[in-house]
TrEMBL record, chains A, B:
GO terms for molecular function: secondary active sulfate transmembrane transporter activity. GO terms for cellular component: membrane. It holds the Pfam family Sulfate_transp. Belongs to the SLC26A/SulP transporter (TC 2.A.53) family. Residues 504-627 form the STAS domain. This is STAS domain-containing protein. Coiled coil: none annotated. NCBIfam families: sulP (TIGR00815). The keyword Transmembrane applies. The chain crosses the membrane at residues 113-136, 156-176, 182-201, 236-255, 262-283, 320-342, 354-374, 394-412, 419-441, 453-476. It comes from Jatropha curcas. Its main location: membrane.
Amino acid sequence: MDVRNEQYTHKVGVPPKQNLFKELKATVKETLFADDPLRPFKDQPRSKKFILGIQTIFPILEWGRSYSLRKFRGDVIAGLTIASLCIPQDIGYSKLANLDPQYGLYSSFVPPLIYAFMGSSRDIAIGPVAVVSLLLGTLLQNELDPKKDKEAYRRLAFTATFFAGITQATLGFFRLGFLIDFLSHAAVVGFMGGAAITIALQQLKGLLGIQNFTKKTDIVSVMHSVFGSVHHGWNWQTIVIGVSFLAFLLSAKYIGKKNRRFFWVPAIAPLISVILSTFFVYITHADRKGVQIVKHIEKGINPSSVKEIYFSGQYLLKGLRIGVVAGMIALTEAVAIGRTFASMKDYQIDGNKEMVALGTMNIVGSMTSCYVATGSFSRSAVNYMAGCQTAVSNIIMSFVVFLTLLFITPLFKYTPNAILAAIIISAVVGLIDFEAAILIWKIDKFDFIACMGAFFGVVFVSVEIGLLIAVSISFAKILLQVTRPRTAILGKLPGTTVYRNIQQYPGATKVPGVLVVRVDSAIYFSNSNYIKERILRWLADEEEQLKESYQSNFEFLIVEMSPVTDIDTSGIHALEELYKSLQKRGVQLILANPGPVVIGKLHASDFANTIGEDKIFLTVADAVASCSPKLAAAQV
Amino acid sequence: MDVRNEQYTHKVGVPPKQNLFKELKATVKETLFADDPLRPFKDQPRSKKFILGIQTIFPILEWGRSYSLRKFRGDVIAGLTIASLCIPQDIGYSKLANLDPQYGLYSSFVPPLIYAFMGSSRDIAIGPVAVVSLLLGTLLQNELDPKKDKEAYRRLAFTATFFAGITQATLGFFRLGFLIDFLSHAAVVGFMGGAAITIALQQLKGLLGIQNFTKKTDIVSVMHSVFGSVHHGWNWQTIVIGVSFLAFLLSAKYIGKKNRRFFWVPAIAPLISVILSTFFVYITHADRKGVQIVKHIEKGINPSSVKEIYFSGQYLLKGLRIGVVAGMIALTEAVAIGRTFASMKDYQIDGNKEMVALGTMNIVGSMTSCYVATGSFSRSAVNYMAGCQTAVSNIIMSFVVFLTLLFITPLFKYTPNAILAAIIISAVVGLIDFEAAILIWKIDKFDFIACMGAFFGVVFVSVEIGLLIAVSISFAKILLQVTRPRTAILGKLPGTTVYRNIQQYPGATKVPGVLVVRVDSAIYFSNSNYIKERILRWLADEEEQLKESYQSNFEFLIVEMSPVTDIDTSGIHALEELYKSLQKRGVQLILANPGPVVIGKLHASDFANTIGEDKIFLTVADAVASCSPKLAAAQV
């Protein structure tokens, strides 16, 4: 009894009332400035604040001061490695976006440079990526034919890129970066896997040398195209070249995976394949036997495309819509990469600042003939393993691409398309993450449904539908959580004053005459009615059990409110209705441990008075103790 | 030390693994059958199940068996009262929907009859209501001109009614009724208030006798219309009649509110006004002096309108869209009324069954020349106060309307429109709920924003925009809750083993070297990253404080997980990242009291092994106790 009396000295605390402005400020701060970006600015003189501000926008000015030759060596090696990987990939990816090959290279020149000055990730490798290229290509060709309206198509691509950049920068500037968190990890895994399969299937065109190929991306149409042309569409020379180099690339990948010291093998294999196959085609004149080749890549660096962007007319809105979607997906990929590597090396990344950097880079890119660039999963991993130290590796890569554009592009003339297809396939297989899918299945079945929904949506219908399914299921999960929160019956763990869920702790014992229910969520309009009815159903269920064992009914219902972090008007109404219903049944409602916000609102709404201040306790144990003497008296 | 050792005997319980099918079944049951509608069917013979099934569809067969003369007397009085109230209201409301007056009466004949057989609320009064009439009228006239295309307009109205019924019945049948809970109480209060003001403003046309009146419903356009016609559009005879009867009606309302025994005064005042004013216009020939009158109401009961519903063509989709919106709003109103009175008289209402009843009644209604009917706030209150016992009061009302349609409609010829306007105004002022708005302001500022958003959206823009604002803000609130959950630093209440939020309990003391953080929400993809960063920020903040007071840093971080009801793959990843970050800082991560679902997933993902089983405790007190000896040793 000592302990209880001691505990009784503590009443449920009512936090001091904050004024409205403070409350609002706190909410806005927690929502938009959760990472406290202004912390370093605190208590600094104005000149220092200015320097800090500039450094915030251009982090290179901060880390650049401690840059060393040792770091530079790491960056050069990493930069050269990712350059050798990106050049053939860029040429292939631009095909996914239905653009000429040089636009892929352009996008690996300007955006990485801008990012190196503004971005805060040290490991990300910037450039065109497979999934965004495919998404952009699919969305653009819904509006315009990439062959018939070549110029308009390209202009729409720049317009979309411009608005993708605007979207990214805006989200970052207004600190709305948390919006991309609504695409769940599981949905992204499924989407990426589906996109990888779709992209790989698309490559069958190049790999098999098929001329007439469907424009649709779903597996049924593609397979129809592939097998429909089996007799008069496949080119055996192309197949030989493509399949043998694909085997080479996949073996290189396998070697790199088996032994991390050989990470450079898969990294340079694509460039070696390009060189070998180009030379082979050149000397054998295989192009005259139906082996399709790249033919022509424009020489020279990025021309200006400011005037190509549609700032008016019907394509403005279309470009905006496509840009928003492509920009969000590109963001999701870049931020995921940035976070992964930041947590591996334990440095902080400001997601919102990162978005401003990515946005700026795409806005500038759209004006210099680039299409949407972002962080590439595969190249970032290679960058990391090659020992990159800072974003300087992106500058090195950018410089190599610059030299390539100036001097080497004509050499790509005889590169067979089949090699590009093989390179893309070997790049995207890494996006299919079986292990993640298995882990998701183990941990959360609902997540697995989202993952599979996105996957099958992309594979069987289209990239947009897959994306839509992924987002819808993710949202549905959130809504389900707030609509149908868990509730649990608590029992006392023997020998303690601890009350726990009796399903989890079968040893916990119920107190006769007292039902303890815990509500595991904030009580809001979306669940208030459910919670009220669920509590009454617990009561009815338990009373039925009591009746079977000829015990007397409940006199007290204790609602453990520790997990109830907030309550709104509908929630208060539900509590009032619960109170009335219980009164009619002769059951006393008791609340245990309402949190600071909840107790404040219980007082504001006068409900605390309605049930009586003395019916609100600090702990379940206190609440039960308050019932017990009466019960004891009743049992005499 | 005794107590602690005793507590140590309890490990964190891992609930037995359920198989997938059971888990899915439980989720589906809790989501769709939360109210356990099949409970009475359990363990019954087949014949009994059949009877129960029939009674479930037609509750009248259940309560009808215990119907008595005493109940009938109550129902007759209530039925006559609401009939006298509904007849003038119906004629006015049909004008809001831009339909001829008889359609309002039709809708008070068939739907209440159907409802009486299928519905489970004993107090609701069925018929056309102001807000739904206005909403329907606004949406319909966006598509068709009610004067120029009178027939097509009426047919579209029936089509919309049909689909409103289909929507309602479908939601109920598939037990998706919880969807209407997403329109929060606060949003409904604001929406209703705004709609009431809009409706009242619309009545200025009739009340002032203005001929040319805007079709828009926003306050600016309406005021422009009113004051633009002040010199040559107002009719003083109309104003005298309208204003004096409005004063009469409002006084009657006031009397009824002051003394509940006189509830019948406001209930019969409208009919008295109609009779008096009609007689007055008839003898004074005021209609020749510009006082507008009803002129003509079709005599006879509802004609069939099956063939008028558009089952094909462009209006099918339009009718569907309008029907879905109107149906949902009608549902919201009816279910809110049903629940309110059910909780006042303490009986249960099955929301989903109720929706099937309302849906069926509107489907049948759409085929018998009725437009969307639902439960009326004002008439249900009168019904309740007049002592209704069962839905038989609706049958009585329906019978009176039937007689009216057959014999009395010609008498309404000389009823001035101004009286109808006055009746509508006096009816809708009750929808403006100042007290609720004040309570919402007191309890929850965010709710208040939703309330005001809906209100001003309706008043200044349009009904649809107000509705859209209300729904958007409601959703935003849910999303904000799951994106930015609360976290708190816990301290020990002196003399207990209870750990509580130090903001709420300023007396709670921190344990040196140990930081205890509570996470107040399930950890999902939408908040996992935030939670991880927020915990690290707590750590940084607290360490800064320690540094200022020259204390040593933290060695342990205890995450109190009692409120964490669930965790998904992203959440597990976030915990892993948190664990790694803490390791690099030399801080040990400890978990306290994970719930059944969470501990299961911690094991499934192997994270429990990663941090060590011995780092997961039943209570915060246990966790702290496990740190203390080491701390004590370190301090020697």
